[in-house]
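Good morning C.,

I know you're traveling, so I'll keep this short. The sequence:
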Amino acid sequence: MDSLSQHLPTLRLVLMGVFGAAAYYVAFLLRFAGSLNDAAVFVLRETVLFAVVSKVVAGAWYRLHQRTNRYVTLHDLVGLAKATTVASVGLMLCDAMFAAQATIPRSVIILDWGATLVAFGAWHGGPRVVRDALSRRKIGPGSARALIVGANDAGEALLRGIRNNPTLNYAPIGFVDDRRSRRGLLIGGVPVLGGFDDLDALIVTHQVEEVLIIAGVLPGKTVRALTDAAANGGVRVKVLPSYEQLLNENVALQPRSVAIGDLLRRPSVDLDFAQATDWLGGKTVLVTGSAGSIGSEICRQLLHLGPKRLVVLDRSETGQFFLDRELRALAKQTEVVVTLADMTDQDRLRCVFDEHRPDVVFHAAAYKHVPLMETYPGEAVKNIAAATRNLADLAEEFAAEAFVMISTDKAVNPTSVMGACKRVAEQYVQARAAGSVCRFVTVRFGNVLDSAGSVVPIFREQIAAGGPVTVTHPDMVRYFMLIPEAAQLVIQAGTMGAGGEIFVLDMGEPVRIVDLAADMIRLSGLRVGEDIEIEFSGLRPGEKLYEELYGDSEANQPTTHPKIMVAASQPLSLLEAYHNVDRLVDVSNEGRDAVLRELQSIIPMLPSGARRKRVAA
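The tokens, ready to paste straight into the viewer:
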């Protein structure tokens, strides 16, 4: 078998010569109406070798003998046409220079070009045509009748993926697409049957068993509507990965059920990789809070941008252990340094800066659970406000180029200790930017979907336990974004601005938490109120009903990125911001009431559940 594989290209060249000779003979038959006279036979005999040699040489030049017949594409057919044309030109040159006693009729050369193109095309494309024809007829009792959402490149790629993968036992019977111009068209022999609004009727008419969509192509609202329409028809919506995901992630071409991320998906914020690579390539980058959901994803994204060294810092020994194993498997040319440190220990942080001299700092370390910080406000002061000051001061002292702090929408008109401490940290970073050679910027965004300890994994556990699913208040809404999107925003923001900006993502419409809970119950194949109950537990200390992205004194200003804005405000002086953190640190161990009084005097906090601006749900 190995010997045959080695000689296969040569055998293909021989076969190419046979097909070329046959096409040349057919051209003579067509030219002389099927009856060759003696003169025609003489010319054919004298020049057939020229025809065969020109076709084999041209075919070898365009590597036709190395192209697989099973996966022939338009690119292969274009190469085939080029090779045939070059062969015809070569045949004319041979006729002019070497065939002294015979002249090939020009009509024969033209007919030979067409016959060769047909012969080579049938040889290369025939197996693909036969295989596709057989796959279209493969609608057996075990094949699920499926509708493909999207009469576009993604939909056509999905159709080809289904036909080429025998493990995907689907029989595509049509496409659905909202563009009326696509109705009635055929894509790979499969018709576009209607629009998204027609899905209910199409399911019944064509006995559809599953609806297939490509991950990440449709906005969340559309996926939600399609899921509801399919559920009304008693069928499931399945999601398959895009080819970009197959190339960039470790996923298999297998369908999965619709996930909550599909329903909440918004048009993504695209990272300008060229700009980010120019900024970070060849530099030493420090990421704090690297064991957390956002910090670890920032580390993964940074490895694509070519930093010379990536220093990941956290105090979680277990988290750092597993992150170390993951990043070293992903890193190609980047040195990964995993270090343990507490953000409140300035002497230890100074050692890290002195050893590694980071050019860029991404500060993701912070406490984030609102109710716990209400109970232990002194720890929030230490780990959020004081830790940010420690890190920002060291970035200035060691002449880092940029410092990017991650903040939260809870810092806007805060009702919680965590939010107020984040606002103090924002103010310090903004004040530190004045007159500094380091670009100090802040990135502010809402909740991150499916991060550790967030509402989605909590709901998932409650559903798995049989319920009830607990929601604090029926009117509570939150902004959501995906973890990779949040990490890309942080990196993109680092490339922007002159320093002192608070960047805010255009996060679209907020999501009602009770709707999120109901969606997760339905996606689990259960019914709200019958299989799983939703119960309201009441607001917890520090919680807000409606999150906001801009404070009352902040102006919304655009940037060069269409999805990133600036919350512009008048910064504090560095002396005042430094003094505010000092006041909080001085009382951080004096008890809860003392910390709350001092924090309230610096950042007035609203009562839990209060709001300044109502956000449409």
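Safe travels,
E.
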